[in-house]
Amino acid sequence: MQTAKRSVWKSSTLGRVMPLSQQTNLLLGTQKTEKLLDQRWDHNQNPIWSVTSGSLALLQYEMEVKEFLVWFKIKVKNNENVIACSMEIDLLKVADGKRKKLDLYKEENMKDSKEGKLFIRCRHASNFDKDFVKNLKKDTSLIKEFMFSSIRTGIKVEKTFNPPDIAKNQRKSFWKRQKDNEKLEYKRIFKGVKRYRVRPDADPEFPVDWMTKEDVDKCSLQPSRSWVEGGSGNAGRIFVEVLSCDELPNKDIGSLTDTFVTLVYEDVAVCTDVIWEALSPRWVPWCRRAFRFNIADSPSELYVGVFDFDPPSLVDRNHDFIGRAVVDIKTLAPGTEYILHYGLQKKTNDDVPTHNGTIKLRIWVETENKRGIVLSSLRHGLKHFGVNVEHITEEKLVRNTCVGSSATTQFSQYNVLAHLKELFSYRYFIMFSFYDAFQLIFLWRGHYETTMWVPRLIPRFDKEKLVDKVARKVEVKLPAHSLVVFTLAVSATEYPSMIVPNFFFSIFWFMFSMNEFNQNNLSPWKRNPSFLEIVGMLLEHKPISVSILENKNKVEIEKSLKEWQERIDLFEKWKSSFFDSRIAFSEKALKEIGEGGGHKRSTTETKVKISAKVLPFLIPLQEILHNVCNQLRFVCNILSWKECFISFWISIGSLVLGVASLFVPWGYIIGWAIRIFVWTIFGPWMKLFDYFYFQPRRGMNDEQIEMMDNKNHERRDRVIYQLANRAQKSREDAVKLKDMRSLIFGQYSVTVLDDKRKRYNDIPLVNSCAQPLTVDSSKFSYKSFVPSQGFVMKMTPNV
User: Which of 660, 701, 786, 770 is nearest to 292 (CA)?
Assistant: First the structure.
């Protein structure tokens, strides 16, 4: 009878074998042996095999075979020791892909002297698995072509992050200019009118090489003709068009800045075309400027970086970083087209943000599963992604786009002082907020505007309606917050069982009032989604389009900022006069007593130089300050509804708990809890606890104490082993995923955090605007597709 053969995947991890340098060969011993692993691990007792070290192998076994042996040939110094383990064929028949443990023994005795553990995974191979290992054995460069060959049909798939290069139709003139040291002309005067060369190329449909500034600005606002799609997911789509930049600094010597833009969304990075020789570049509709990012779960932040292009002819090619901006997608309403202006910031930890020019973007969001977006915020905490690239230059592009040129986690005296200044900057906000809240709540000052019907003293018979004859409308401000606080306080005082429900209701009231305060902000760009808007998303209501005019409330915003600064200056002036008066009084008293006087405060500032001996103590101080600032930013983001979904779920949770606790007899529960505590702790039966627990321990000898300590250590070791085993699994998955990403996308990796815990969140400038969306995205044509770099590792990647 002919024996059947099955294909099985195998992946392995070795644990605690030898402490010295070792050469490991894994052989499979049945009727035919096959070499699986060949990797040298120097001074590593717990090596982990990944795809780059040959962890994957395709095995064929016969159904009649009952078991096979896995052999390890380990060379220690000049001697060879062989250890092995056996595995029954029934485990291969199951082949569920779960992690299995095998004990390793010496070859001469398979029952005694364990030499370590081997962890493997097995599952039945699919056609994709067979093709993957076939290409992997031939050439690792074929993996990229194989992985992305079947993702999209009829569209070009960009395998990795592709920074811009010189356009084909400009390459000849560019290299000629470099060779002849000639400067290409980019502006001319025709009949007294200044015109500019169309960059990067002329319109292929209507070839026009020169345009006026007004024509270029008008042309840049036209719809894009081709788009680049990126990412994976079906929760929604983000459409981004890079329109222009203004007032950029010049980064080139002897010429002007050659500008291009890098965009990073989650694990997808893309770039625009280069606009040559322009400090205020404009991207025209027929160039590479339009991108669509697919939303997998909840929207993340969009990172935008502006760079100066350096040609490949330079020995030290390093695209100069100009600035970056971060777009918070959560604040954008679906069905609305936004034209956003952002200031470009180079450093993220400056005391006062400085802008290196501005960038203009056109963005709109389309969502199909609004409820899923809100619910997904419950499953995810701090989201982080990874972008792998092939070259160090590309890695710098992505890193500068995501984190800027300043590293807040790297030690420096500047970062320590920046964290301290940030902590001190909270004092004005906290102090003035408490002062305003005290006046608003305890002095019953009205804030909620509404209209009320007030009876007329003298009826107006000239009115048509009866209501208008006997009453009139009056606009009033009701002290709603004072009424809520008074109701909660009185009910908790008169009915102690209402303390717990009122506690949860207080949290809901506080979060709802903070949302109301955010919605009343003069700047529409600082408003986050309201509580009712998120409820509408949960109920799948049709989103309401937003309309915002340019420079809306600009005068009022400037006036508000001026009043805030005057308030701070007035407080500082009062504080200075208060301390001056106290010092003057002390000097006068000391002079009269005769114990000195004439003390004067020195007005000269002394610069403190930090000694090298103090620097080691500042490193942990900076880490502590960094963590404290991050936690304070996170709390402020929740209270201000910048983390709108987290704030919403806290509000909903407190409201639900408050309503549910109304039906709980808290008085009965608290009374019985106190009774049980008192009767248990202070009762005479505590003598039994002393007799059976404390007194026997006092009479123990050293041997008994050591035996008890050993039992406690064993219990602790079991817990530590479970934690170490869990950490080992996480480490294995991380190493395998990292190596697989390096193999497919590139060896340089950048971590992208969807984190709003930054010192300054980028806010659109006042000249931004919004209007209802009128574009039909279903008619867009896509030029290429950038796949997501996130995939699930189940021994082989599942993109």
Answer: 786
